[in-house]
Amino acid sequence: MNLRAWFRIQLARLGRGIGIETMQEQIFEAKLLTAKVLINQMKSRGAHQSLQEVEFKVFSQFGDDGIIQYLIHAIGIPTERRIFIEFGVENYEEANTRFLLMNDNWCGLIMDGSAANIRHVQQSSLYWKHDLTAVAAFIDRDNVNSLFREHGFTGEIGLLSIDIDGNDYWVWERIEGINPIIVIIEYNSVFGWQRAVTIPYDPAFRRTQAHYSNLYWGCSLQALCLLGEQKGYAFIGCNGAGNNAYFVRKDRLGPLKINAAEEGYVESHFRESRSPLGELSYLSGDDRLHEIRNMDVYDIEQKQISKIVDVFKQ
After folding, report:
1. How does pLDDT run across 263-293, given as a tens digit for each residue?
2. What residue ranges do the domains of the chain occupy?
3. Which of 1, 168, 223, 247 makes the best surface tag, with the fewest CB within 10 Å?
4. Which positions ≥6 away from 7 have C-beta within 8 Å?
5. Of 27-36, 76-85, 97-106, 172-181, which range is least confident?
6. Which pTM value belongs to this model?
7. CA atoms lying within 13 Å on the CB side of residue 74
């Protein structure tokens, strides 16, 4: 019997004759048990050729929980560095670091632009059961370092996760004062892997207001690879959903393989585009880039702002 079949049987057993809250707790316990089995399997198999081979999901949006577990065991994060920072967490029900917090007993800082989302976290049992600092802040490149210092996060940490659907490139570029071993940062697969581009910096950028399609945000994978190289990080690969890129500091690579953008790039296939009326339009492939062809991007290698249609010849 494979693990997925076993997991379905456990959930069916748990669901008989119990309340919703108890069932939710027991579902988590079943997920946790399954995750532990998968973690032991990946540890016994040593190095993997692709990050997608180790994916599993407990709290992450896609398979990032598994990738993170693989990386922290492959690298070997010292106990005193088992600290994370993640921003753009919404209400933290679905996040890259929550499994680290609950399963591995890491501590950390999370931030989100919504005060309501942060209150949700602070009022949950998660907040007293774990060493977690939750802060409401709209992050830009000018305030990110002061927010770290204000809440006592400096020096070397185990993991940094950046997901703000906009100025991700500009914020990572400016970060100093912390020295993460692992960096997870969202990229916009619509921009492909060949060109190093990002949205021009705008401290008030909001994805849902920038373009009706909801496709205009963030930066390309190549932009992140160039920035990572400047900051002393190696590109390791992407998750299977094609939205998160993984970087490891070069002095802590261990057995991990370095990839070029072309080798590690994964194209996203989720169809979240919107029409001018706000309805899902389900664009895919190159149609997504064509939809935003008249928007501006900053070409990092050319050091200039150009229209997407000109950069990509759309």
Report:
1. 999 999 999 999 999 999 999 999 999 999 9
2. 1-45, 53-311
3. 1
4. 30, 31, 34
5. 27-36
6. 0.91
7. 25
